[in-house]
Amino acid sequence: MNKALATMVARQLQQHQLPLQIRLRSGQRLGAADAQVVLHVHDNAVLKHLARGHIGDIASAVVEGQADLDGSMREVMTLASMLLAQAPTLAHNHWWTRLWRYGHSLAQHSLHQDAANIQFHYDVSDDFYALWLDPRRIYSCAYYRATDMDLAAAQEAKLDLICRKLHLQADERLLDIGCGWGGLLVYAAEHYGIRGSGITLSRNQYAYAQALIAAKGLQNRLSIHLCDYRDFQTDTPFDKVASIGMFEHVGHAHMTAYFQTVRRLVKAGGLILNHGITAGGTRNSQLGGGMGDFIEKYIFPGGELLHIGEALRHVADAGLEAVDIENLRPHYAKTLWAWSDALEAQLPAALAILENTLSPAQANRVLRAYRLYLAGCAMSFEHAWISIHQILVTAPDGDVNHGRLRGAQSDYPFKRDWMYLT
Question: What is the C-alpha to C-alpha distance for residues 345 and 410, in angstroms, rounded to an integer?
């Protein structure tokens, strides 16, 4: 069987001229002698994944030590895209598939499970994230207003774009749902004079954001809450709400309720900016080829993606109005490659940081998983297998005389020129 598999894989490599060399435990070598990517196979089961084009399973084998990879992450991902048997956005949408997806979503997104999911990812190590994120620790898609911007400048441009889209004014109250390390709130307070609150389920992010606010002397303007968005209460609705990179964690089964909760938290006529990853296909809730399963297991348990069309349906079902939509997909590909390149340049330091809190074996698994995750997501955004959208939403107040235009029913001016710097 192993010999037959090896023969099949060797034929595939030759037929498709794949830039890969495979080295088996027996010492046998398959593929191009001068390939830039070398896969060292320690368990011949990996050959099955290669034959089927399941790159997610190959990635899992690398994380678990059943195989090793030599080559840059950019070269590895060029190869990975060639190995896929079919586009990872293709999926069957039978009624039983939809039923299973709904049940799985319900089970994955209880209050307890969501907290565990978030802490699994975001509480790995603050120092680990600081190694490859920008100085503000913005862990979401940057905005490359100029193509030659570095990551730090592009992240500031993204923060400013969010503030401009929300039309933030001095002393307005801003709620940041899933506030991360507090970067948006601090930026909005310093540059737009807002008062704000943030919500996070990550203990590490909560502690860091609290310390950052104190160091900036913003305690009288900003506060952070360690809680689920469903449990957050306020006596006075906020003027504006931002949710950046959070709704991917909500789940299909809870999406309308999520937008209803957001509507409860914003004043009538207020603005909401929802920034999140969306599915590239209309029928798949995760990437095929084993990639979605890999991310679910090693990176984002409970993560679920919706196509932009489905997301807009939930917005409408919650009684909200989407007034502006922008696709930032190419920006996220560039952002992810910046993160990947930064991590690749500091692998020994990253491993040492992880070994401060994890066993050497666990630290190695986490590092391998993140290397493949960051580069794999960059590749997926480049190919439009996944996307990302900013959806600017209003909570209509029913007053047709509200705002700058008759019939506006919100603070949104219904034009776009004020969003962008000239």
Answer: 47
Helix (H) or strand (E) holding 264: helix 255-265
Can you tell me the distance from the alpha carbon of 281 to that of 348, in angstroms, rounded to the nearest whole number?
38
Is residue 275 one of the residues assigned to a domain?
yes
pLDDT of residue 405: 74
**pLDDT score recorded for residue 422:** 54
Q: What is the DSSP string of 362-412?
A: HHHHHHHHHHHHHHHHHHHHHTTSEEEEEEEEE---S-TT-SSSTT--SS-
Which among 242, 220, 265, 249 has a CA at the least distance from the CA of 109?
249
- How far is 186 from 362, CA to CA, in rounded Å? 34
Do residues 69 and 39 make contact, with C-beta atoms less than 8 angstroms apart? yes
Count of Cβ atoms closer than 10 Å to residue 364 Cβ:
16
Please give the DSSP secondary-structure letter assigned to residue 13.
H
Residue 332 burial (10 A CB sphere; 0-12, 13-18, 19+): buried
**19: containing domain:** 2-83
Q: Are residues 120 and 253 in the same domain?
A: yes
For residue 418, give every residue at least 6 positions away whose Cβ sits within 8 Å of its Cβ, in sequence order, or none.
164, 167
Return d(Cα 158, Cα 293) in angstroms, integer: 30
Entry pTM? 0.91
Residue with tokens 């009624």: 95
35's CB contacts (< 8 A; 6+ apart) are 19, 20, 21
User: Where among 30, 59, 83 does a domain terminate?
Assistant: 83
Count of the separate structural domains present in the chain: 2
Token duo for residue 211:
């310390």
* Residue 196 phi, psi dihedral angles, 5° rounding: -150, 160
Positions marked catalytic: 377
The token duo for 403 is: 């705002």
Whether residues 232 and 158 fall in one domain: yes
Say if 181 falls within a structural domain.
yes
Residue 59 region, left (φ>0) first, then alpha (ψ -120 to 50), else beta? alpha
Let me know how long the chain is.
422
Identify the segments of the chain with pLDDT beneath 50: 1, 95, 120
Domain match, 393 and 286 both: yes
Same domain, 155 and 302: yes
Q: How far apart are CA 265 and CA 258, in angstroms?
A: 11
Q: What CA–CA distance (Å, rounded) separates 200 from 204? A: 10
Phi, psi of 173 (to 5 degrees): -100, 120
Q: Domain boundary at 27, 57, 83, which? A: 83
